[in-house]
Amino acid sequence: RRKPDIPVPYLYVDMGVAVLCASFMSFGVKRRWFALGAALQLAVATYAAHVGGHVHYGDWLKVRMYSRTIAIIGGFLILASGAGELYRQKPRSRSLQSTGQVFLGIYLICQAYSLQHSTEDRLAYLDHLLGGELALQLLFLLYGLLALAFLSGYYVRTAAQVLAVLLPLAILLIDGNLGYWHALRRVEFWNQMKLIGQNVGIFGAVVILATDG
């Protein structure tokens, strides 16, 4: 058995803070503040894991892991901005929302990068794409255009609506292919489940932008 990515004393603190923020956000108590706290907690946890010396993954897997972490942080920032609130009592923070959108754009750039430079990701997509390499290149182009929309701040709602259609398919067909990732590519089961959960969270942030962007 190997050591966890985060040193054990800090791991329990990280778990406690995550549960606390999630609980208050779920009940709608100071949602903006706790969403901001969750973004900070995730950033600190990722940094602690990186400097802890126990993270030994291939470069292609690091891209998958860190890009989704960045996107989740962006999702929390979007939530902290006040987007998606039914009865908004305070003005929306455009700066927080714009920062969150930039983080989602970075995530999409990493997705596009993986389609070109990661054999593992390419094969995962080619197993399900009709049209083979041509369809893969079209998907690469689409991810690039969506990233440009999020980074520039133009057509964000349209881009979010397109991504809200793409993500469930990617979760079910690509991430959900546990036989490929766990058995063939040796991604630890807990890690793959975390990646699936993160993509579900990204989908939630995208839905907020698609309906209240």
Automatic annotation (TrEMBL):
InterPro entries: TMEM101. Pfam families: TMEM101. This is TM101 protein. GO terms for biological process: positive regulation of canonical NF-kappaB signal transduction. The chain crosses the membrane at residues 6-27, 34-53, 65-84, 96-114, 134-156, 163-183. Signal peptide: none annotated. The keyword Transmembrane helix applies. It comes from the Eukaryota. It comes from Motacilla alba. Keywords: Membrane, Transmembrane, Transmembrane helix.
